[in-house]
Structure formats: C-alpha cells, structure tokens
Amino acid sequence: MPQFFADTAWFIPCYPLVGMVLSIAWFPSMIRRTGPRPAGYVNAITTFFALIHGLLALPAVLHQPAQYLYLPWLQVAGLDLTLPVEVSALTIGAAILVTGLNLIAQIYAIGYLEMDWGWARFYALLALFEAGMCALVLSNSLFFSYMVLEILTLGTYLLIGVWFNQSLVVTGARDAFLTKRVGDLFLLMGVLAIYPLAGTWDYNELAEWAQTANLDPTLATWVGLALMAGPMGKCAQFPLHLWLDEAMEGPIPSTILRNSVVVATGAWVLVKLEPVLALSPVVMNTTMVIGALTAIGGTLIAIAQIDIKRSLSYLVSAYMGIVFIAVGSQQTEAALLIVFTHALAMATLVASSGSIILNCITQDLTQLGGLWSRRPITGLSFVVGAIGLAALPPLGSFWAMLKLADGLWQIRPWLVGLLLVINGLVAFSVTRTFGRIFAGNPQQMTERSPEPLWAIILPMAVLAGFTLHVPMILQHFNLLPAWADLNKDVALLLTWSSLFGFSIGGVIYIGNYVSKPIQLPWKPLQDLFAYDFYTPKLYRSSVVGSVDVISRITDWVDRYFVDGIVNLIGLSSIFGGETLKYSNSGQSQFYVLTIAIGVIFLAVLMSWSFLTHL
Amino acid sequence: MLSSLIWLPIVGAAIIGFLPSRFSTSQIRTGAVWLSGAVLLWTIWLLTQFDIHNPGLQFREYLPWIETLGLNYELGVDGLSIVLLALNSLLTWIAIFSSSVQIDRPRLFYSLILLINGGVAGAFLAQNLLLFFLFYELELVPFYLLISIWGGEKKGYAAIKFLIYTAISGALILMGFLGLVWLSGASDFTYQSVLGQTLPLSLQVILLGVLLVGFGIKIPLVPFHTWLPDTYVASSTPVVMLLGGVLAKLGTYGIFRFGLGLFPEAWAKLSPFLAIWAAVSILYGAMAAIAQKDIKRMVAYSSIGHMGYILLGAAALTPLALVGAVSQMIAHGLILAILFHLVGVIETKVGSRELDVLNGLLNPIRGLPFVSSLLILGAMASAGIPGLAGFIAEFLIFQGSYAVFPIQTLVAVIGTGLTAVYFVILLNRTCFGRLDNATAYYPKVLWLEKAPAIVLAILILFLGIQPTWLVRWTEATTTAFVAAIPVTEPSAPIVQAMPIDSPRLPQ
Q1: Which of A14, A29, A71, A76 would best serve as a mutation to test chain B binding (most B beta carbons within 10 A)?
Q2: Confidence at residue A134, expressed as pLDDT on a 0 to 100 scale
Q3: Residues B315 and B278: beta-carbon distance below 8 Å
Q4: Which end of chain B is more exposed for a tag (fewer CB within 10 A), N or C?
Q5: What does A25-71 look like in DSSP terms, one character per residue?
Q6: Cβ contacts of residue A186 below 8 Å, gap of 6+?
Q7: Cβ atoms of residues B485 and B59 within 8 Å
C-alpha cells in the first residue's frame, strides 16, 4: 500500500491545486450567499489530504534509494522538457513539512482572518504556494524549479497584496515581486547558460556532469553566480533582502509560511545546485561571503527593529545566510538540517507573535509589555520557538548548528567564530523581542489582552509541540550524532554563545535594570541598523533611479526625437506644398523661365564629362 | 477549402454592408458574430485536417489569373501560416463579439472588420508575391476608416499617420518583390519559383534590407514604430485587438516568409545585426512603456518590446528559436488582445485610462474585481510568468538563441525583467490601492463584456500549461526553414567561397 502512495507521489501538489480551483467559486463575484468561509474549509481539507498522502507514502521510501518518475511535458525541436519526479525520503519528508505547516497555517488563518472578506483569494494563494513548494521539492529538474520559483514570485506579489487597500502593502508587494524577479531572471540566465554546457537540467545528472566537467573557470564563475542569484532573491540575502521585511505587511498566516518554508525554496534549489556551484571556487566563496554578511547584518538589524514581525523576519534572512554559508562550504546536509529546524522554530515564533498582534492591535514592540501573566500559552510557545531557534541543547537548531560548526571546525575555524557570534546575537534578539512583549509592566495596548480563539492557540501550541519534538524526529531518522563522535568543544562553545545571548538579553530586557529605549553610543550606527543599512535609499538611488531616468529619457527621445522627425517630415511636406502652390501664378513668362533654367541645368549635367575634358 | 477563409468573410462583408435598414444594430451584430464564428469553426476544422508532420504546403489551390503579369491565384498553408490563420479567425470573432452593441453605423463597421479578416487570411494564404501584396494592401483602407470613424481622441492624426506609414511599408515591399523577381529572372511571381534564387549576396542583402524596413514598419520595429502608440491609443477596442493581435503578425509573417524564406544566405549574414536590433527594440519598448501614464499607451509600447523577441528568434536561426518565435506570435496575439480588451472595459466603466486616476479596482464590492483579476493574469502572461502562454514562447526563443547570440539573449532576458516592472506599475496603480468611494459608481460589467476575456484567459492558461498545443503545428515547418539555410555558419564559409581567382586553381 505505501508503495502505491509513493508511486503516485506526483499527485501531492495536485490536492492543493484542486483546492485552489474550488475556492474560485467563493470569489465575491461568484457565490455570495454562503460568505467566503467555505473556501477556507475546502482548502484545509485538500491540504489535509495532501499531508495524509505524504505520510502514507513515507514508509515506502524510508531507507530506500530514490525512485524517479518521468512525466512528459513538451518535446519540441530537439528540446525535451520532461518533468522528472524524485520520490525519496528527503523529498517526501520535505513535502510533509510543507503540507503540514500549510495545514497549521490554514487553521490558524481561520481564526486570524475571522473578520476578513478575502478568504477565497487568500486561501487560493496559500494553496498555490503549497502546490508550488510541493512541486519544487518533488521535481528533480532545474528548469521546473525555475518555473515554480517564478510562479511563486507572482504568488508572493498577490499574497502580500491581499490587503491591497493599504499603501504600504502595495509598495511591499511591488518590491517583493521585483526583487524576487531580479533573482529569478539571473537564475533564468543561468538556466539558459547551463543547458548548452551540461545538456541536461536534471539535478542528479548535473551533479554527475559537474564531477567530470572541464569548464573554463570564468564561464563557470559567471554561470554559478547567475544560478546563485535566484536563491539569493528567494532567501532574502543581501542585497536582495529588503522584500522580506516589506512582506511583513501581509497577513500573519502567510507570514508563518513565508518565514518558515517559502524562503527555504531558495535554499532547496541552492542545495540541489551545490555540485554545479562547486565548479568555481569563486562562486563558493561568494556564497559564503554573502551568507555571512546577511547573517551578521540581519541579526544586527533585527535587534534594532521595533516591529515584532520585522524583528523576526530579519532573523529569517540571517538563518538563510547561515544556510548559504553551509552550502558555500559544501555542507549540504547541515544546510537542509538548518532549514528544517529553523522552519519549525520560526513558524512557532511567528504564530505566537500573531497571537499577540491580533489581540493587542499593535505590533510595535515599544507599546507592548507585561503580557506573561495574561498570555501564558502564547508566552510559552514563544519561549519554545526562541530556544528552538538559537542553538541551545537539546532542541533542534543546536544539532543543526553543531553539524555545520563541526564541519567548519577543520577547514575554516574563523567561520565557526562567526557562527558563534551570530548565534549569540540571535539569542539576544529573540530574548529582546520576548522581553519587550512579555516582561515589564502592562501598557495601554496590553492592559486587556486575553488569549485568542482556539483556532489560533491550537495551531500555535501544535507548532510549539513539534519544535519540542524535533530532536526525537532527528533521532528517529538517525540524524543525531553519536555521543562518541560529538565534537564537544564546538558543542560547548555553541551552548555558551546561546546562553550568553539569552542572559545578556534577559538582563537588559527582562530584568528591569537598564532604562529603555537603549541608545547605542554612536547614533549614526544605531540608525544604520534601524533603517536597514539604508537599503531602500540605496535601491532608489541606484537601480530604481537609473531605470526611472533611462525610461524618462527613452520616452523623451521617443516623443520629441523619433516621432519629432516623423512629424517634421510631415510638416515640411505640407509646408513645401503650401509654398509651391504660389509658384502656379498663371503667367507664361514664369513658366518659360523655369523651363529654360531646367533645360540649361540638364544640358550642363549631360555634357559634364565633355566640359571637364575641355 | 482555403478560399472560403478569404471569400466567406469578404462576401459576408458585402452582404452586411448592403443590408436594408430594417435590420437593427443587434441583428447585424448577431449576423457578424455568426459569420465570423463560422470562419473560426472552419479554421478549427482545417487545424484538425492539417498534417503536422508535413513541413510543406498543404491544401493548395491554383487558378490562373493575369499570367502576363505573373500574378496567379495560388493559395496554400504550412505550419507557419496555419497557426496565424487560426489566430486571425479567433481574434476577429472576439473583436466582433467584444464590440459595443450600440455601435454607430454598424453595417460599415462589421463589414470593414470582416473585410480585414478576409484580407489578412488571404495574405497568410497567398503563395504568389503579387497576390500577397494585394491582400496586404487590402487592409490599409478598412483600418484607416475604422480608426478615423470609430476612434477616440486624435483619431484623425492617428489614422493619417497609420495610412502613410503603412503605405510606405507597402511600397517598400512591392519594391523588394519587383526587384527580386526581375533581377533573379524568375518567370512569374510564384513563391516557389523565386525560392531558389541565386542572386549575388550583396544584392540579396539590399533587397532583404528593403523588405525588412517594409515589414519592420508593420511589425513595428524601433525606430519605425511611432505610428503604433498613436494609432493603438486612438483606436477603439475591437480595432486595436485586430491591429495588435493580427496586423502586427502580418509583418512578422512577412519577415519569416519573404525575408528568411527567400533570402536565407543574406539573412544568415545579417543575423547578428538583426539580433542586436531585436535587443534594442526590446529594451526600447520596455523602457518607453515604463514612462507612460496612460495604460493603453503602456500596453501599446509593451507590444513593441514583445515584437523584438520574435525578431530575436528569427535572427537566431535555430529550430528551437524559430518555433519559439512563431509561438510568440500566437501568445503575443492572445495576450495583447486580452490586455486591450480589459483596458477597453476599464475605460468604458471608469471613464479614464490615466494611471494617476485609476485606483483600487480589485475591490470586490464596488470595483471591477473580475476585470482586475483577468488583467493581472494578462499582464503576468505578458511579463513571462511560467504557467501562462507568454513564458514558454519566450523561453524557447531564449534557449534557441542563447547558443548563437548569448549577449543579445541576456539583454532580452533583462527586457523581460523590465516588462515586469511596468506591468507591476500598471497593476499596482489600477488594481491595488484604495478605491475612491466618492467616484466609484461604475456600471456593472456585462456578461457579454466578460466572455471574450474569459475565452482568451482560458486559452492563455491552457497553452501555458500544455504548450505542446502551441508548437505542434509549427515545428515541422520551422525545422524545414532552418534546413533550407545553405550554410549554417554565417559569414566565414561565404567569405572563403567568394574569391574567384584563388591561387589554388592552377595546381
């Protein structure tokens, strides 16, 4: 029986697609009588089916080699676009994670968007994301991954723009679309460029090709950089990171998904492309440098944010940066492990922050406080998420970071140091957020704040539960290191860095010893972090500005030069005609004169050769 | 069989034009819809009968006409023309369907549109250069009248501009044809008889250049494009659908059939230049579109950019790029038609096309949610998002041309990014944002106005998900086009073959 489900695993993305198509029926212009809510229930059910399908297929693929299915799509003029489906423990596991988190987010949305009218659109888009992510993990081809990533770019645009009445939402959706599209187009360039070289887009064949490929280093570098740029956009890495911050204008249920698994689509493609990227050391180093910069920069910015969602979203960029470091140092297993542990912990954090935002109406950290006694379940979930995120044993991230740090220990010890700093800053940052929400005295906005509807509490608690169980899941799949192989130095250092971050954060933000808001000694530095390294200004003055200026110039040239010449010709012919009509005076002397001049001119012209030889 | 595609609409046009006055506007409209529907069904039947593995001409018809001139009535279809015929029949039907029920002077309007349908079909079918030219010129006056009678603001200026430009285009094409036939000493103007011409390369390049400019005006390519924004903006919705969806394809068809088909050597020689020209067109169209404030003008400029992809595919001369270019013609026709239709609906309902005036149309209660949703779909299809018809066509072109012209292809990829920029500007300003409640008393969008957009949207989605249906009729023919190119490597072998008194000879 499990084998049947494994053979039909390609159908997993189709469940949400069915849900998506069905929810069209509840668009406001279709069914109004029932209200939009049935769209949500339908999608939750189809997502549940997808999850069950994945779970049933899992036993058949555990500890088995990957199976491949091939679905023909397009054969034209020598180009064979067949969709290869990889069914393995990894891909099915990833699909289960995606569908599971989707189910939780959709139930969460039933509570969170109780008063919203846009259910059909919202759920249809969530389903699109679910289908896209499942298709991404199951497809074993760079081309189809690119297709899915592009469709998800459009999905991001629409999903962020769900509340399109608000101007910040509109700009956020626009920036997300364009930033991701920039990454996608570089990826497209890479996709185009690699096919003539490798002759395939299948990941495993690309990996085989990369082992024996004898490529010009410059070419390999360019192709690798282009391929890396796509995941950079998706994973919100410097300098394409701004969209994730602006995407926080969208509804929380979609943020749960975006911060946990949607950003991870980029990481997934990056991991799959690692053998190709490894062809050029320049690319690998760039990957690492970008990851390191984002990780450090992201955590520092996160600490300076006063918006709950933004302070969490920059940590997502930071963790994806760590994934970039992992891939850049060829530790793909550690990369995937970080993606997994981060997804659950971050989802828990976002879910509990959503529970706060819904009832306190504000997401401004400076207006919150003193909620610990009022919101115990949310508070506990936040703590679980925080500990799950920073590397504190025995929860998940510790083992993932340990694996990465262990791998780096021999080859690049300085990166381990960097990792410890980042980890400490992450711990500090989440403690700061926790302290500003839960510790201190209640403020005006938090005075009356009960726990919200079960539809929010239940998914949040389930997420916290999963976060707590991550070590057992890892244990079950033999992903934990044996005690004997444990690199105890690294483990201790990681634990210390987390404890250090947590305790300093605790002293400052939970214990009431320091007056807030805290000012850094140097104001410009604080502004640099608070305003996100001035990236919006940087965009505006570089890419956006230049496109704007060039387009204006083009328009001007078009109007006044190209079209101007056309109109000039038209005008001058009219003018010429108008002028010439005065020559028809009716006096025969004038006509004779013109004829005479013409004859003389012709005569000179025809006898020119004779005249010159005189 | 093929003649009916030409004469059914033309005879229909004559009948509708002279209907007595007791027939009401809606009856005339119904008649035109049924007539064009019959043409569409006939085309679909032809598609089913077409042998997709045969790259040559099918369903040929021959009737001697003026043999002293070398002008004969010769028709035939291959994989290139059949898909364009289908596009022509479909878009004509949709244009008639989407025209306003209370249109002024309905007899003249519908008969002109049917005349255009017949004429375009004739141009796609003609296998004689002069016959092609006659049909090509047949469009000119109906379009002039359609623009100048039913057009919007500045219609007189636009119509004259269109007339002059297109007349010049026709003159250049005739010049090219006459030059080709007379210089090559062919017995008549039959396409097959000039096919294997062996003119000197320099002469070929000159003739091809003349044709390129002639068809380039029609497509249009930068810098011969300035008639397009004015004309498109001034035309009414059904007319602009035909202008952008079908008439522009006459230019690209001409480039394929008479440029690439008749001058393969010269084409191969000019192709690097053509690829650069294509890339410039793409960037220029996109950049100019970004700066527009009028959504119809923005869509018009997008058309200029998208035509560049077709030229890029044609320049690359690989089977993949050519089939991609033909697919792009179809995809572009469908996408442009849906965009212009929706822009037209917005204009009639909201009363404005200005980006600064429109806002929040996605609002489910008082906005135009259905139109806005389809506008998002159309815009994203145009921006090349996968899953919609525009993507696969562009991708095939890119993949096919990358091996030959990597730099130009990458520039074209940047062009698709810029396409996304202006469409996001368009969507953000029109669909997103807050609807102004004071002004939002829009008339209801009628089912009649939704239907054409739904048909086009379904086709765009279907061809995006199942692109096999986009390429299956064309593949054999375009592959044969490439096979007909005598030397695949441009320039180098030709240069070697050129010297007549080479020193090797005495040995």
Answers
A1: A76
A2: 94
A3: yes
A4: C
A5: GGSTTS--TT-SHHHHHHHHHHHHHHHHHHHHHHHHHTTSPPEEEEE
A6: A225, A226, A227, A229, A230, A233
A7: no
Beta bridge partners of A72: A82
Residue B502: pLDDT above 50?
no
Token couple for A613: 């030889």
B420 touches chain A (CB under 8 A): yes
Chain A contact for B475, CB < 8 A?
Answer: yes
3-state class of A82 per DSSP? strand
Helix (H, G, I), strand (E, B) or coil at B76: strand
Q: Does residue B223 register a pLDDT over 90?
A: no
Its pTM stands at: 0.91
Helices A413-438, A332-360: inter-axial angle, 10-degree rounding: 10
- The label of the residue with tokens 């995809």 reads B331
Angle at the Cα of A155 from the Cα atoms of A151 and A157, rounded to 5 degrees: 120
Tens of pLDDT, residue by residue over A465-514, are 999 999 998 888 888 887 777 888 888 898 999 999 999 888 888 887 77
Residues of chain B in contact with residue A73, where contact means CB-CB under 8 angstroms, are 467-468
pLDDT, position B307: 92
B486 reaches A (C-beta below 8 A) = no
**Which helix (H) or strand (E) is B504 found in, with range?**
none
pLDDT above 50: residue B494: no
Contact present, A425 and A388 (Cβ < 8 Å): no
Question: What is the nearest CA distance from B22 to chain A, expressed in angstroms?
Answer: 39
Residue count (chain A): 614
Is it the case that residue B27 has pLDDT exceeding 80?
yes
> Which B-chain residues 321-340 have CB contacts (< 8 A) with chain A?
322-323
Whether residues B402 and A182 touch (CB distance < 8 A) is answered with no
CA angle A81, A262, A322 (to 5 degrees): 105
Among B465, B474, B459, B464, which Cα is nearest to B334's? B459
Give ipTM to 2 decimals: 0.90
- Residue numbers in A near B388 (CB within 8 A): none
Mean pLDDT, residues B145-150: 91
Contacts of A558 in chain B (CB under 8 A): 226, 284, 288
Contact A547 B417 (CB under 8 A): no
Written as six digits, the tokens of A367 are 């207006």
| Kind plus residue range of the DSSP H or E element containing A437 | helix A413-438
Within 8 A of A563 by CB-CB distance, chain B residues are 226
Residue at B187: amino acid letter: S
**Of B428, B436, B478, which to mutate for an interface test with A (greatest number of A Cβ within 10 Å)?**
B428
Q: Which of A75, A174, A552 is closest, CB to CB, to B428? A: A174
| Cβ pair A547:B471 closer than 8 A | no
**How far apart are the C-alpha atoms of A447 and A613, rounded to whole Å?**
111
Helix, strand, coil proportions of chain A in percent (round to 5)? 75, 5, 20
* Inter-chain Cβ pairs, chain A and chain B, closer than 8 A: 142
> What per-residue confidence (pLDDT) applies to B487?
56
Q: Which residue of B has its CA nearest to A169?
A: B433
Query: Which amino acid is located at B159 in the chain?
Result: A
φ/ψ of B480, rounded to 5, equals -65, -35
Picking from A192, A549, A552, A556 by the largest number of B CB atoms within 10 A of its own CB, the best residue to mutate is A192
What local confidence, expressed as pLDDT, does residue A409 receive? Answer: 87
